Amino acid sequence: MDEHSAACFKPGDRVVVRRGYPIGHVRTPYYIRGCVGEIERVCGSFRNPEELAYARMDTPRLPLYRVRFAQNTVWPDYQGKIQDTVDIEIYQHWLEPA
Amino acid sequence: MSDDHHRPHEHAPDSDDHLSYYQAMEVAVRELLLEKGVLSADEVRRQIEDMDARTPARGAQVVARAWVDPDYKARLLADGSAACEELGLEVKPMRLVVVENTPEVHNLIVCTLCSCYPRPLLGLPPDWYKSHAYRRRAVREPRAVLEEFGTRIPDNITVRVHDSTADMRYLVLPMRPAGTEHMSEQELAALVTRDCMVGVALPGGRTNG
């Protein structure tokens, strides 16, 4: 059986994206690091692309979330409307409670 | 370069005679795999044929079914991959998330990191979807990008961008246009274009709301 890490967050939880800058195949966009959002849904558990990129296939699966961010908190000079959002998939090890 | 013949051309060069670094690598790896018997040339050809057979008509089929069958729509929004499988369309290994346009919300899909795209349902992505300009701007100024596609979203509607960063793939379920009550499922599918399912356009070119 595959090893899984347990999900720490549930829909509605407020989270902050870790402000880290590791090298390698990272799927957390730069622009969202340090931002605070809300868990939209738990997508399931998936292998960490940061490990897969180096052919390490035996690491535990990680919970993946869709996190919703208010655009005007992501971009200080956002030109759209106050209600606009961006939803991004983020793996658990990039998230901390906000 | 003084010779006129070597001046850069205005148009993109026709460069069949020159392989980029990664094209050369692809050829080298493919030839090695064939030589070592890991793959056959026919298997490679068939895979390309399969990829080319995927067109936005598949996505349109899913959207039209959701428009005529509320129970199907509920299943599609709950689990996109499973609902596609009901129609014989396999969306694997990535999982499909279908996002619904409503009178309150307009959805737009982008992959800022590369060009993740629901290929099993839409085929290969258009060049603009892979361009740096779209990837950078769709998330940064989505309303301005939508305007450039001829899609004006009224101020009171939420624009919700989905950045396809990991294991999910996204399909926009547009709103069924008014005045289509008499149409068959097949006629409805013909209204659904690729761009509607990425979220840069609306069926029939209508503005939202």
Would you write up a description of this structure?
The complex is a heterodimer of chains A (98) and B (209). Chain A has a five-stranded antiparallel beta sheet with strand order 4-3-2-1-5. Chain A has a single domain (14-97), classed as SH3 type barrels, CATH 2.30.30.50. The model of chain A has no long low-confidence stretch (mean pLDDT 94). Chain A has two helices and five strands; from the N terminus they run E-E-H-E-H-E-E. Chain A has helices spanning 49-52, 71-74; strands spanning 14-17, 36-46, 62-70, 85-91, 95-97. Chain A is globular, with a radius of gyration of 14 Å. Chain B has 209 residues and is α/β, with parallel strands linked by helices. Chain B has two domains: 20-53, no CATH class; 55-205, Nitrile hydratase alpha /Thiocyanate hydrolase gamma (Nitrile Hydratase, Chain A, Alpha-Beta Complex). Chain B is 44% helix and 11% strand. Chain B contains eleven helices and four strands. The radius of gyration of chain B is 20 Å and the shape is globular. The model of chain B has no long low-confidence stretch (mean pLDDT 92). Classes of the chains: A mainly beta (98), B alpha/beta (209). The A-B interface holds A 27-29, 31-32, 43-44, 46, 49, 64, 66, 71, 75, 79-81, 83-91 and B 95, 97, 112-113, 139-144, 155-156, 158-168.
How is the secondary structure organized here?
The complex is a heterodimer of chains A (98) and B (209).
Chain A: E1 14-17, E2 36-46, H1 49-52, E3 62-70, H2 71-74, E4 85-91, E5 95-97
Antiparallel strand pairs in A: 1-2, 1-5, 2-3, 3-4
Chain B: H1 21-35, H2 41-53, H3 56-68, H4 70-78, H5 80-86, E1 95-100, E2 105-110, H6 119-122, H7 127-130, H8 132-140, H9 142-148, E3 158-163, E4 168-173, H10 185-189, H11 194-198
Parallel strand pairs in B: 1-4, 2-3
Primary descriptors:
heterodimer; A: 98 residues; mainly beta; 8% helix; B: 209 residues; alpha/beta; 2 domains; two-stranded parallel sheet; globular
